[in-house]
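Figure 2 data, in text form.
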Amino acid sequence: MKGKDLLSISDLGIEDVRLLISDAVDMKAAGWLSLLEGKMLALVFEKPSLRTRVSFEMAMRQLGGHTIYLSPAEVGLGERESVSDVGRVLSRYVDAIAARTFSHQTLQALASYSGVPVINALSDLEHPCQALADLFTIYEKKGELGGLTLAFIGDGNNVAHSLLLAASLMGMNFRIASPAGYAVQDGILHLAKGYAADSGAEIFCTEEPRQAVSGADVVYTDVWTSMGQEKEADQRRQVFAGYQVNGELLSLAREDAILMHPLPAHYGEEVTENILDSPKSVVLDQAENRLYLQKALLAGMLGGLEIPLAGYR
């Protein structure tokens, strides 16, 4: 990964993901390191964030590096400042850029003009850092990835796209239940099917949540209305009314199934009020593991690792 962009899960191969998970295991055990002393990461955010911003800032700090946060008001990406100028100017100052954008095209343009690595910290198409941290969490809880079944219930959104690609790449079966008109994009599905043909993973798309969850090892859901879709909120609540993850639906999964959600959650919508506090829930582990996965990613991009690797192979 040294010097490369991470805009999509498709930028990675199976060995890249294995190494990132292995390095995340070691990062979690090692604590603070001085691998990126003198390195600077710019956080260019068009959307607000809790987990993404804090996990990136702490990742750089724990590796001995530094961050500078640039809010929408300060940059005005594509408005006050052209995307090309932002990419070219920041490349003269910093060692990498993590960008959280409304449009994936903005992210791609930023990367094309940047002379330093660009990381997708969320776009409307994908959320690769979230999906990679989720795979790390699943590996922690299950001890493996290949052959497991992940059921995603809800909108075929950016998180679903990255999870579909990551699971298919790593040999995990992926099922998704979405209402008509809210399925994953055809291009993402086509790419994932290519990965699945090589890894042996199975992909199943349905409109019926019970079919997706039945016998699953992992049940995953996300908000019905993402940032930038607020005008659709009332309509989406009606369309997704039958896609709530509750105790009854979760009972159809395997007895030792885990429940995942990237947060923030809209309680009473995609999940019932107390279910994310149930013993099956690993949502706080997911949130914590963003830190370690991103430490592994940043160290690989900017400095290379110098700690013994004892994790996932």
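Caption note: Residues 17 and 25 are 12 Å apart (CA to CA).
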